Amino acid sequence: MFALRLLLLLGCSLLGAEALADRYVIGAEDDWYPYTALRDGKISGMSVDIVRAAFEAAGEEVELVAYPYSRCMQLARKGTIAGCFNTAPDRRIAAEFQLSQPLFSAEVLLWARREQAAPMNDLGLLAGKKVAMVLGYEYGPAIDQHPSLKRVPVRRDLNGFLMLQRGRVDYCVAYRGTSEELFREMPSLRGQFVPVASVLRPQLSLSFSRQYAGADRLRQRFDAGLKTIRENGRYQSILTAWRHETPN
After folding, report:
1. Is the pLDDT of residue 7 over 80?
2. Which of 173, 215, 218, 238 has its CA 20 to 30 A from that of 198?
């Protein structure tokens, strides 16, 4: 009887381990609202809704875990987790990760203090200027490959705007949507900053690890699910619910 119980327990343990192995871990950025953020202990945002809906449509069970973006991408790069979002792809990212079909697009802006704001038609004029930018973010070649601007890495957009407010940097580079949400939530920042240049409007993706077992199949399933929700209207309903404007 004891041997039979032991075999049953072992069998249940193996089934539990197999079920756990089938649940992929996807990293979600913890502080990029309204797209992806950890709020009141829950991961929420527009791209969170898109990712969950696509996996659900594909019949794949995943667990979303919140991380700072640079940490999230590092874990996916090493294969500790299956993937991370949201990524603005460049050549390096495309070589290191398997990229999903685009989740959505969003505009990156260069912000200045209102009293010192002047349109900047040539980002080459950033030479020698201090620019706050979130650690690990991709901002496109005009910023990422600029030969002589002075990069000031910050943990999150809020820190960059606070440095700009206090005159510790000349500019802050940040997405329009996250910046405007930050200004709405923090009255002390309202009306103080003006965008002086449009830097980039990337198509943001989910980056799947090249080192995580099964990640390639999961990417294919995710893309299939994303296609399904685009076709059945659920994708557009998510964008509408979050009032996300798409370019003409």
Report:
1. no
2. 238
Helix (H) / strand (E) containing 54: helix 46-58
Query: What is the residue-wise DSSP string for 131-168?
Result: EEEETT----HHHHT-SS-EEEEESSHHHHHHHHHTTS
62-67 vs 24-29, strand pairing mode: parallel
Q: In what order do the strands lie in the sheet with 171-175?
A: 150-154, 130-134, 171-175, 108-113, 193-200
Total Cβ atoms within 10 A of residue 57: 21
Phi, psi of 75 (to 5 degrees): -65, -40
The C-alpha atoms of residue 155 and residue 134 are separated, in whole angstroms, by 6
Average pLDDT over the chain reads 90
Name the amino acid, one letter, at 121: N
Pairwise CA distance, residues 62 & 52, whole Å? 8
Interatomic CA distance for residues 179 and 157, integer angstroms: 7
The residue count for the chain: 248
Instruction: Give 16's pLDDT tier (boundaries 50, 70, 90).
Output: very low
Q: What is the pTM of this model?
A: 0.85
pLDDT, residue 52, reads: 98
Under 8 Å between Cβ of 32 and 38: no
What residue type is 216 in one-letter code?
D
